[in-house]
Amino acid sequence: MWNVELPPSEYYTLESGPQLEALVKEIEAQKIVAIDTETDGLSLWRCLPYYWSLSWVDGKERRVTMSASTLPLFKKAFDDRERSWVFANAKFDTHMIANRGIDIKGKLVDTAVMHALLFEEQPHDLKSMAAQILGWRWTDFTDTFGSLRKGTCICGGQQKSHKDGGYCKKTGCLAFRQVTALDLPLRA
Question: Could you count the other beta carbons within 10 Å of the beta carbon of residue 97?
Fold first, then answer.
């Protein structure tokens, strides 16, 4: 479990209309914004982000998650060379965003690189850095979102619990459907 008090998460899609437009303007006014992507894999050139998130402080802490389809709306913010973007792995996330046709022209701050310079003998993934520096701990990704293993249905049951691909004896789901990365946020 989390031992960290996080601000509530906000979720926006293209259908969020005026709220999304207001968010775009709010981000354009920020000078420092943390950013992260959730992708369909780890290949720098083939994979794509499906979701992305931002966090910043403007009187209060804010964090939002959005579908990758909203990325183009933030082009003006990404083009601002004076804005600082904070990443936990800038090389990977900037590649993912570039794979959606968007370049980030602002200043890049990479906490993993900073950590590597200070603590070269330690692991530099976000979870390890948070534990070492802040004492923060959280559950594994699969504990929160479930597994992408072959034979796992979106209902959380296994293919073998679905009789001949149909009704799931465990969850009551009517038909087996292999879970994909796109389904994971819906299961959280």
Answer: 22
